[in-house]
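Thread title: Can someone regenerate the structure for this chain?

I was given the following input by a collaborator and told the matching structure tokens would be attached. They weren't. Posting the sequence so someone can regenerate them.
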Amino acid sequence: MDTKQAPSSDPLFRWAEIPEKVRRTAPVVHCITNYVTAPWCADIVLAAGAAPIMADEPDEMAEIASIAGALVLNIGTLRHSSLDAMRLAGAAAVRLGRPVVFDPVGAGASRLRTESALEILRDYHPAVVRGNISEILALSGRAGKSRGVDADPGALVSGERLVESVRLAASLAETWGCVVVISGPYDIISDGTRSCAVGGGDPMMTRITGCGCMESALLGAYLAAEPDAWKAAAAVMAMMSLCGRRAACAARGAGEGTASMRIRLLDAVSLFAGEELAGADVKIL
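Best answer:
Regenerated them for you:
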């Protein structure tokens, strides 16, 4: 499989229009996410120009689904009550034709997480599944080492593993009928036919809680505005890579730490212009 570098302004993608579509349409994004990262997920959706609603009461799921443009399911702090809400919201989203983003946080760490993740994958047909390599391997039935919510460092998608990783993502995308996003030093995005890797970012992104959860929340905002799930997913990962690097560099340059980096990340997303995607480190695979 050959690889080549290509700017995200390539006519195949036309990603630059997507961030502006999100701001123009301001979709409601229903996030059932974990309580550790919920405020940051809400803030980054707002920064992108969309409107988050962080409801997880089972009795109101059908009504919330009717006003949301997309649903984001995140099992980071899985409880039976939140799982019940996810089932009701997922069923409503499928019935209404709303795109579902699934973040299988910690899949492989416990039987409950793995079985719940497989249930969501089977029953609610996510448009995008985004996880780290350990979570994706766990859902694929292959042996993947989990450190709770973190990936096995030895399995992270590196430059040397791009071809191997994109083959895995493409195969699972075909099997699951969705876009698969594998996060890591390189983010892999595949719908089974189209695949790319997005590099860049910054190691400081791994030192703040919830960067992956925030990416999944942004995926909901972008999918609500852009019907091509692969384009939407690639645009999100490219934007987060650029904004994460910008935020980390600014924080270090000012002698600041990770708390300031988080705020700078939100600022970068709120000020991001679509044409900046042309500067992303994108490899077509």
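Residues 229-253 form the longest helix (25 residues).
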